[in-house]
């Protein structure tokens, strides 16, 4: 059953959850880098821990966690979904791991010839985040649906806070400008290794962050 989880015995246990394991499970790719990083930490990786502030305890981490969104059958698949405690608060967090991979299509490309389902989905996400729909076409759609996944899981698990963190293992910070453009839509100025705080329309605090992972895992 999908809702019954078994603890990992090492990074290789993450491989079977990938959409294309033979293509994606390689050194230099984000899937393996994230798995090695999280397994080595046996907690939150230090660069993510630092973004959350306070005393942090990882309670649960799920690789390749799928979150259903309205308007279609394809879920938002988080590289890692985590539940953590930060001081006296609980937080639900979606992590998007990157090495050299881009964030995928822009909103404009994704919405080209859009079906009713896509229009519904984008409208739902924008309402959740408190931004106008449609958003600027040049922004990356993946950042929208991954953040929405974090918010929805925070609501489902009834946590106090939510977060969407990009865990980038690129030492030259590839695609940071796309993350910065997304955060600017929320009135936030991105900086690597710095948490950005935003209050959602629901009143829930959202943390966005760009965490720089160790090159040792690439």
UniProtKB/TrEMBL annotation:
It comes from the Bacteria. InterPro entries: DUF6946 (IPR054024). Residues 7-214 form the DUF6946 domain. This is DUF6946 domain-containing protein. The lineage of its organism: Bacteria, Pseudomonadati, Pseudomonadota, Alphaproteobacteria, Rhodobacterales.
């Amino acid at each position: 059953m999908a809702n019954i989880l078994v603890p990992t015995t090492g990074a290789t246990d993450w491989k079977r959850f990938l959409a294309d394991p033979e293509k994606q499970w390689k050194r230099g790719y984000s899937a393996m880098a994230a798995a090695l990083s999280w397994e080595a930490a046996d907690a939150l990786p230090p660069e993510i821990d630092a973004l959350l502030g306070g005393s942090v305890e990882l309670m649960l981490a799920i690789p390749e966690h799928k979150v259903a969104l309205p308007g279609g059958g394809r879920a938002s698949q988080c590289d890692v979904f985590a539940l953590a405690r930060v001081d006296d608060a609980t937080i639900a967090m979606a992590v998007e791991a990157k090495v050299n991979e881009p964030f995928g299509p822009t909103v404009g490309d994704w919405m080209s010839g859009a079906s009713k389902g896509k229009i519904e989905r984008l409208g739902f996400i924008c309402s959740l985040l408190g931004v106008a729909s449609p958003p600027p076409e040049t922004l990356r759609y993946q950042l929208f649906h991954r953040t929405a996944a974090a918010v929805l899981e925070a609501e489902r698990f009834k946590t106090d806070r939510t977060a969407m963190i990009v865990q980038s293992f690129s030492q030259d910070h590839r695609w940071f400008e796309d993350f910065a453009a997304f955060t600017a839509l929320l009135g936030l100025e991105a900086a690597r290794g710095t948490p950005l705080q935003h209050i959602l329309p629901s009143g829930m605090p959202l943390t966005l962050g760009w965490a720089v992972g160790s090159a040792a895992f690439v």
